[in-house]
Structures
1.
Amino acid sequence: MLMGIIAVAIVVLGLLSASIRVVREYERAVIFRLGRLVGAKGPGIFFRIPMADIFRKVDLRVVTFDVPNQQIITKDNITVDVDAVVYYRVFDPIKAVMNVENYIYATNLLAQTALRDTIGQVELDDLLTKREELGKTLTQILDTATDPWGIKVVNVSIKDVSLPEAMQRAIAKQAEAERERRSRIIIADGEFQAATKMAEAAKQYLESPIAVRLRELQTLTEIAREKNLVVVTPTSVGSDLATVLGLMRTQSKESR
C-alpha cells in the first residue's frame, strides 16, 4: 500500500514538473495542442498538457546580425565589396512561428538580396556619400517584406564599402587633381585682383602727375632711410611739392 502511494506521488510530481513552464519577460511561448495552435503565453508561468502540448519560445529582443560580405556591381559598372548590419525584433511571435519556417535564416537571406538589388541601382558616388539614405531605403524594404513574418526591421547600416585597388588609386588621383584645380583658381583670383588694383592706381597716376611726384619722393625717402642717405631733389620738384602743399592748405581752410 505504501509503495503504491509513493509511486502515485512520483507520477504526480513528474506530471507537474512536465506541465509547469516559465517564460522570461522578453520571451513568448507559442503553444500547439495536438498539432493545433493554442496561442502565445508569457511572460511568467504557464501550464501545458504533457504529451499533448508542445511549444516554441520566441525572443522579443532586438537581434543584430552582420550581412555576409557582398560583391556587387554598381549602376556605373564598378565592383565593390559591401558589408552591412541589420537590427530587427519579433513583434508577433505567432506570425514568426506560423508564417515562416526559420525567420532568422529567412531575414538574413532577404537582407542579402535587398542589399544587392539596392546597391546595384546606385552609382559609386552615391554609395560613398549617401550611406545613411541607402540604409533608410534598405530598412523600409526589409521592414515591408518581413511584416507578414511578424518581424520589425529597426535599422540597416552600411558598415563598410571596399573598392578595388585600381579604383582607389584613380579616386586618389581625382582628389589630387581637384585640390590642384582649386589652388589654381585661388591664385588666379588673387592675381586678377592685384592686376585690377594696379590698373586703378596707374589710372590715378595718369590723371594726377603731382601724385606721381609724391610717390617718387616717398620711394626715395624710404630708400634713404634704409641706406642712411640724403635725398637731394631738383628745384622743380620742390616747387611742385610746395604748390601741392599750398593747394592742400587752401582746401583745408575752405572746408572749415
2.
Amino acid sequence: MSASALEPDQQPSTVSRPRPHLVLVPTGRDAVGRGRHAQPRMRLTRRGRFVIAVLVALVLGALAVAVGGRLAAASERPRSIVVKAGQTLSEIAARELPQLPISEGVVELQVANGMSSSGVLAGQTLFIPSP
C-alpha cells in the first residue's frame, strides 16, 4: 500500500507531543526530609514505655535468679567424713543419706568418691553428695 492510499485518520502524525518537564530529585538528607514517603519516627506511648520497662525488669530478675542460684550452689562446700574402724559403706549411707534407700545411698557415695567397690578403709575420707 502506498502512503497516498491511507485514509487521513490513519496517516502518521507529524505533530510531536510535548515532553514532560524534568524535575530534580533530592538525594541524601534532603530526600529524607522532603520525601512524601519518608517514614515518621516511631513514638512510644506511655503504655508502650511501661510494657518495655516491665519486660526489661522481668529479664533482669530472671538473670538475677539464675546467677544467684548458681552462686549458691557453687558456694556450698561438699561435706566429708573420715571412716572409722569397723564402719561399712552401708552404715555411712544410712546415717549420712537418710532420705535415700540404703542401696541407692551406697551407689551415690561410690559415684561421688570414684569408688569401684563398696569396701572402705579406716581413716579414708569420703565426700557426701548433696541430696
